Amino acid sequence: MLRSPKDFFKPLAIGAPAPLTEIPVRPARMVHFLPAQNARMRERVPELLTQVDVLLGNLEDAIAIADKEAAREGWIEVVKNNDFGNVQAWSRVNALDSPWFLDDVTRLVSEIGNRLDVIMLPKVLGPQDITYIDRLLAQLEAKYHVTRPIMVHAILETGGGVAQVEEIALASPRMQGISFGPADLAASRRMKTTRVGGGHPSYLVRTDPDPANPDAPRVTAQQDPWHYSIARMVDACVNAGILPFYGPFGAIDDPVACEDQFRAAFLLGCVGAWSLHPSQVAIARKVFSPDPEEVRIAKKILDAMPDGSGVVMLDGKMQDDATWKQAKVIWDLATMIGARDPEFAALYGTSAQA
Ligand code: GLV
Ligand code: MG
To answer: Whole-model pTM?
Structure first.
């Protein structure tokens, strides 16, 4: 760490708000991507705000070059003209080496700096990228009288980023989280796949031939090409006190595989995923809200060990301090989701009040 720990929580520009010492934890089961250059999409925003935890104005990939400015200005209009209530407002800006980045950040901070929760930075190569945007945001916050710091979310989608993910996560108190970006990451690593997330039928292991019957078909099992990177990202985030997310799942026409990919990330520790299409909102809502049966078991464990210590047997399974903590992770998440989403509060038996 190059900066003295004593200075870490001081503003990086005179007049900028003091950095946050903790990341506010709010439900963020789906980060819904909005192409705000499209008037029809902008009209759908009030309805979307009743369905999503995070609405993100996308300015980067998937926005055609001719639409870059319209997407930026359309998103500013969306944030200004809608009451987001408890829905978070994020924006994915263009990459640092693009011709749009500087205007993206300047326009966003000057126009909606006090309403924007998070800026998502794509194609992060290392902690130096975070250091750069950290100072730039402080200067802009000071200039445009922003009263609370805008947080930064990195996309993990370069080989360099994965190699330095621990340093990226720790690079600034602004760091709010990291999303996994399988498309750019595959390209950066020269992986041989055109898919966006999910498995690949050729990435597999095979049992040995049967010596007595060498031509018999041999069982194969498909492997998960993303497991190592997602698990490493989760550890880096936990170590830094920030939040890990799964990113995009490209096969909109395969909701089953989307659900599997989201769930694998959820089980490994991710708190949410991106939804690129309205049909993926419901998938993320289902997957990233804990399973009511797990919540019931968690509550049972917590009730059986009120002070969280000792050892008890419950339905043939040993419970101790560690399983109490596992149960608490699930119960706390259920309580938080229930406070935002009354349908889940009813399923969990938690309170629907925030
Ligand atoms: C997301 O941006 C990705 O490249 O997968
Ligand atoms: Mg990408």
So the answer is: 0.95
